[in-house]
Amino acid sequence: MTESPIRVGVLGARGRMGATVVQAVEGAEDLRLVAALDAGEDLAGLGDAQVVVDFTHPDAVMGSLRHLIGHGVHAVVGTTGFTEQRLAELRGLLAAKPELGVLIAPNFALGAVLAMRFATQAARFYPSAEVVELHHNRKADAPSGTAAHTARMIGAARAEAGLAPGPDATTSEVDGARGAEIDGVRVHSVRLPGLVAHEEIMFGGEGETLTIRHDSIDRSSFMPGVLLGVRTVVSRPGLTVGLENVLDL
Ligand SMILES: NC(=O)C1=CN([C@@H]2O[C@H](COP(=O)(O)OP(=O)(O)OC[C@H]3O[C@@H](n4cnc5c(N)ncnc54)[C@H](OP(=O)(O)O)[C@@H]3O)[C@@H](O)[C@H]2O)C=CC1
Ligand SMILES: O=C(O)C1=N[C@H](C(=O)O)C[C@H](O)C1
């Protein structure tokens, strides 16, 4: 007997990512699109969705997640803006719903996940690391969720290896010229029309540099990861942060 398709709802359905997700879900035989909502639409319109995919806005996502968890709906979230405080709140809400899964991934592109993994492996071998992320100029947040996640992963690997802050002789700077500091790692944001989503992770050491670069040149790059998330989250209770955990990297 064939299994019934997973019923999927999409939040942010008229946005750049949401519209691409709608198409991807419609094209998948084992999934059925049951709702596609955007800003201002009542979440009751999600109907009997089993899994909801959220690509909206950092200011909107927590409200939606509170509703989804309260109504027993699994969630796959690409929206950025997750702080430790937000994650702690979600863990608290999920504790009362042991069967429910929420997957939050700052980046659903396979290459971006691999780039972060490779960067984490490289981190302990170099005294200095910096991240440059480059995106389209319609992006709401800076730095990107991916760059923040990358910096945190590198920062953790550096701390575990007992590395001191990278050597840096800067004593005078224009505000912002050295980027934002996340867990001891400098992160720089570029916004230009024509770009989609790109990241360079740069390491410097004695007489050499190592650069790991990933480019999403089309939003279709995120879809295999999103669909994998939808198929996985229904049998993965609790909060999962990062697609690397689903891919078991
Ligand atoms: N994890 C990943 O792999 C990726 C993550 N992202 C992230 O996804 C998010 C969306 O990006 P993108 O698609 O480019 O943004 P867009 O602005 O193109 O799309 C967001 C859509 O969500 C709508 N929206 C806002 N609030 C709500 C709400 N409460 N309920 C339903 N819909 C809402 C917006 O409507 P309106 O415009 O009217 O406000 C808009 O149509 C960002 O945080 C981005 O960083 C993006 C790409 C990949
Ligand atoms: O807004 C985007 O476009 C993207 N957002 C995510 C992020 O902030 O990391 C993922 C990807 O970089 C595209």
TrEMBL record:
Record-listed (S)-2,3,4,5-tetrahydrodipicolinate binding positions: 136, 145-146
Coiled coil: none
One GO CC term, this protein: cytosol
GO molecular function: 4-hydroxy-tetrahydrodipicolinate reductase; NAD binding; NADP binding; oxidoreductase activity, acting on CH or CH2 groups, NAD or NADP as acceptor
CDD domains: DHDPR_N
Domain Dihydrodipicolinate reductase C-terminal: 111-247
One of the GO BP terms on file: diaminopimelate biosynthetic process
Enzyme Commission number(s) of this protein: 1.17.1.8
Biological or metabolic pathway of the protein: Amino-acid biosynthesis; L-lysine biosynthesis via DAP pathway; (S)-tetrahydrodipicolinate from L-aspartate: step 4/4
Localization, UniProt: Cytoplasm
Keywords associated with the record: Amino-acid biosynthesis, Cytoplasm, Diaminopimelate biosynthesis, Lysine biosynthesis, NAD, NADP, Oxidoreductase
Record carries keyword Oxidoreductase: yes
Catalyzed reactions: (S)-2,3,4,5-tetrahydrodipicolinate + NAD(+) + H2O = (2S,4S)-4-hydroxy-2,3,4,5-tetrahydrodipicolinate + NADH + H(+); (S)-2,3,4,5-tetrahydrodipicolinate + NADP(+) + H2O = (2S,4S)-4-hydroxy-2,3,4,5-tetrahydrodipicolinate + NADPH + H(+)
Active site (record annotation): 135 (proton donor/acceptor), 139 (proton donor)
Family listed: Belongs to the DapB family.
HAMAP family for the chain: DapB
Role of this protein: Catalyzes the conversion of 4-hydroxy-tetrahydrodipicolinate (HTPA) to tetrahydrodipicolinate.
Protein name per Swiss-Prot or TrEMBL: 4-hydroxy-tetrahydrodipicolinate reductase
Species: Amycolatopsis panacis
